[in-house]
From TrEMBL:
Keywords: Signal
Record carries keyword Signal: yes
Organism: Shewanella sediminis (strain HAW-EB3)
N-terminal signal peptide: 1-19
Name of the protein described by the UniProt record: DUF3016 domain-containing protein
Lineage top rank: taxon: Bacteria
Length: 174
């Protein structure tokens, strides 16, 4: 009888873990003047979780990038303007490496050899009117020289790359 309860508890626990890892097909994050649709994150080059549930890691990553981009976009865009993006690929800085049992989790090794990359299309809206649109494929080969290594902000390399794009590409054309 006791074994039945233990087995039943194990089934409930494993079902809860599987349910917790449900992913949204094309998640959308929105904050302030920025709205981003993340198209088919399963096919992204590298948004691999290290020590976390994959769906939770993706959500936190997408929310952080949206929040950081909004911080800069709200300074660049006029009050009635909005930035909408469709991200088709994302490759976070670094590479996930197995630890072969040395630790419980894999590690993300951040070296110059593994730069951040992002591919997306965007449009700047003023009301319902599109005033600017385009497609971008960004790679920051010198990411380790531009962002202080002492910085511990999440997604700092990717956020810096998007901020630079906003200042160099979007701001001059507005």
């Amino acid at each position: 009888m006791k074994l039945t309860y233990i087995l039943f508890a194990g089934v409930l626990t494993s079902t809860a873990v599987i349910a917790a890892d449900e992913t949204v097909e094309n998640p959308v994050t929105e904050q302030g003047v920025v709205k981003i649709e993340w198209q088919d994150p399963k096919s992204f080059r590298d948004v691999k979780a290290v020590g976390d549930i994959q769906s939770r890691y993706e959500k936190r990553t997408f929310d952080t990038l949206t929040k950081n981009l909004n911080r800069e976009a709200s300074k660049t865009l006029k009050s009635e303007q909005k930035l909408e993006m469709l991200v088709t690929d994302l490759d976070l800085a670094g590479d996930v490496r197995p630890t072969f049992g040395a630790t419980m989790n894999d590690i993300r090794l951040v070296e110059e050899l593994y730069p951040p990359r992002i591919t997306f299309s965007y449009k700047i809206l003023e009301g319902d009117k599109v005033i600017m649109a385009g497609d971008e494929k960004l790679t920051d080969m010198g990411f380790m020289q531009r962002v202080g290594r002492a910085s511990d902000k999440p997604m700092r390399y990717e956020s810096k790359m998007l901020t630079d794009w906003l200042k160099k590409t979007v701001e001059p054309k507005l």
